[in-house]
């Protein structure tokens, strides 16, 4: 069975990539045109819509057609230190507020979401749970990092799954959906010669001790979480890769960042777009294994994850 879904704040299509042919978007919604172009090129059978979520009414959303499932990835900045943790007072929370109103009105049968760990202690979370309770959902939530399961990229996140089918309940997550993998398998040596990625000696000297230098040869190496500021802010936005024979450092290519997020080899980024434009799109996406783990709690995806334990 192919599940119909609405993918809110879809970006480049992390949920579509996680589910493959198990789901089809009646609407994949975002305001970032470049992200939507990449979404469309990888998932031509899905309907990508460039819209401001705050402008949508229940009638507009219902007009897209029935959806078994909603996925939500609302902006994380209202819940981060760098975003000053303004929570519901942050203007960027407006889209989440509208989504809560849409949930209360349309009551999609199943939904799930992802956000930064700070969401777990926020007023936004409480508003979400209040909405779910009033609309008759059962839900489950957790904060996990895929490194706990042997995945080589740190990306701790809050995840929630909810369903109005309370008779079926919410299943225990499938545990081998985040499969251990050496970091080195996510790296492509051809990028060692890409001048756009090489860091100069002045940078390496200035930030020595302040950046994480990843060694592709170390079997248990883990990269830091890549953020949308990777390529712009030098620290706390991701890791740098050691070049062979101690020849220096380079940034991870956008395609390598996606590999560290568990995107399949078949997923393609445009070759004619500069890395500095692609890093934010990759950094805003999802860890697919952790996303599948959350989705495996929903009965509608039982067939998709059949045989997984």
What does this structure look like?
The structure is a single chain. This protein is an alpha/beta fold and 309 residues long. The protein folds into 2 domains: 3-178 and 287-301, Rossmann fold, CATH 3.40.50.150; 183-283, DNA Methylase, Chain A, domain 2, CATH 3.90.120.10. It has helices spanning 14-19, 33-42, 58-62, 94-106, 123-134, 201-206, 254-260, 275-283, 288-295; strands spanning 3-8, 23-30, 48-50, 69-72, 110-115, 138-144, 157-163, 212-214, 239-242, 249-251. Strands 3-2-1-4-5-7-6 form a 7-stranded mixed beta sheet, sandwiched between helices. Strands 8-9-10 form a 3-stranded mixed beta sheet, with no helix packed on it. Strand 1, helix 1 and strand 2 form a beta-alpha-beta unit. The longest helix is centred in the N-terminal third of the chain and has 13 residues, at 94-106. The two termini are 20 Å apart.
Determine the fraction of residues in helical runs and give it as a percent range: 10-25%
Q: Which CATH class of the largest domain is shown?
A: Alpha Beta
| Distance linking N and C termini | 20 Å
Q: How many distinct beta strands?
A: 10
How many individual domains? 2
Q: What is the element layout, followed by pairings?
A:
Blueprint: E1 3-8, H1 14-19, E2 23-30, H2 33-42, E3 48-50, H3 58-62, E4 69-72, H4 94-106, E5 110-115, H5 123-134, E6 138-144, E7 157-163, H6 201-206, E8 212-214, E9 239-242, E10 249-251, H7 254-260, H8 275-283, H9 288-295
Parallel strand pairs: 1-2, 1-4, 2-3, 4-5, 8-9
Antiparallel strand pairs: 5-7, 6-7, 9-10
Helix pairs in contact: 4-5, 7-8
């Amino acid at each position: 069975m192919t599940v119909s879904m609405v993918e809110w704040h879809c970006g480049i299509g992390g949920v579509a990539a996680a589910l493959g042919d198990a789901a089809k978007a009646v609407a994949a919604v975002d305001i970032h045109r470049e992200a939507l172009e990449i979404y469309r090129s990888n998932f031509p059978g899905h309907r990508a819509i460039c819209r401001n979520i705050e402008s949508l009414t229940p009638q507009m959303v219902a007009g897209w057609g029935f959806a078994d499932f909603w996925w939500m990835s609302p902006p994380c900045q209202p819940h981060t230190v760098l975003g000053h943790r303004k929570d519901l007072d942050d203007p960027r929370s407006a889209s989440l507020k509208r989504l809560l109103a849409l949930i209360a009105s349309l009551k999609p049968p199943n939904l799930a979401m992802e956000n930064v760990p700070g969401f777990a202690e926020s007023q936004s979370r409480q508003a979400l749970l209040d909405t779910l309770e009033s609309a008759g959902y059962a839900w489950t939530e957790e904060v996990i990092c895929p490194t706990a399961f042997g995945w080589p990229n740190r990306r701790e996140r809050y995840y929630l799954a909810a369903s109005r089918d309370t008779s079926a309940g919410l299943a225990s997550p499938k545990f081998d959906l985040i499969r251990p993998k050496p970091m080195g398998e996510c790296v492509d040596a051809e990028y060692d010669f890409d001048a756009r990625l090489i860091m100069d000696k002045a940078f390496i000297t200035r930030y020595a001790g302040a950046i994480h230098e990843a060694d592709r040869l170390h079997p248990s190496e883990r990269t830091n979480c890549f953020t949308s500021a990777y390529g712009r802010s030098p620290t706390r936005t991701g890791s740098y890769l050691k070049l062979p024979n101690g020849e220096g450092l380079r940034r991870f290519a956008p395609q390598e960042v996606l590999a560290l997020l568990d995107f399949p080899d078949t997923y393609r980024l445009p070759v004619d777009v500069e890395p500095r434009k692609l890093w934010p799109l990759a950094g805003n996406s999802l860890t697919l294994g952790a996303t599948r783990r959350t989705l495996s709690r929903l009965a509608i995806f039982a067939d998709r994850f059949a045989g997984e334990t």
